[in-house]
Amino acid sequence: MKVPKEMEVYCPHCKKYTVHAVKTQKTSKKRSKLGHAERLHQDRLKGYHGFPVKVGGGKYKVNIQHTLLLTCAECKKSTLKNYPRLKILEISKE
Ligand SMILES: [Zn+2]
């Protein structure tokens, strides 16, 4: 699905409808390397306790949850907006 480059949505900072620039926001977090579970996982990859077995394995959700980063043209503050699950999200270049 194509998403327009600019959207006119409500800005909670200006308290009115203004033009917003649209960007995609990556929501996935990086694992910290010092966490307890991550240390156990690294031990397993080294060869202790056998090789880690995938749980489930099958990919049952095809569509991805997208989050848009909307930046207000007037106050330059940005808000996040959840978008419905889609396979591909494209921002049009016009
Ligand atoms: Zn604003």
UniProtKB/TrEMBL annotation:
Which residue stretches, if any, does this entry annotate as coiled coil? none
Alphabetically sorted, this entry's keywords are: Ribonucleoprotein, Ribosomal protein
User: In Gene Ontology terms, what is one molecular function of this protein?
Assistant: structural constituent of ribosome
Entry's InterPro entries?
Ribosomal_eL44, Ribosomal_LSU_eL42, Ribosomal_zn-bd
Name any GO cellular component annotation.
Answer: ribosome
The biological process GO terms on file are: translation
Q: Which Gene3D superfamilies match?
A: 3.10.450.80
Q: Which family would the database say this protein is a member of? A: Belongs to the eukaryotic ribosomal protein eL42 family.
State the name under which the record lists this protein: 50S ribosomal protein L44e
Q: Which organism is it from?
A: Huberarchaeum crystalense
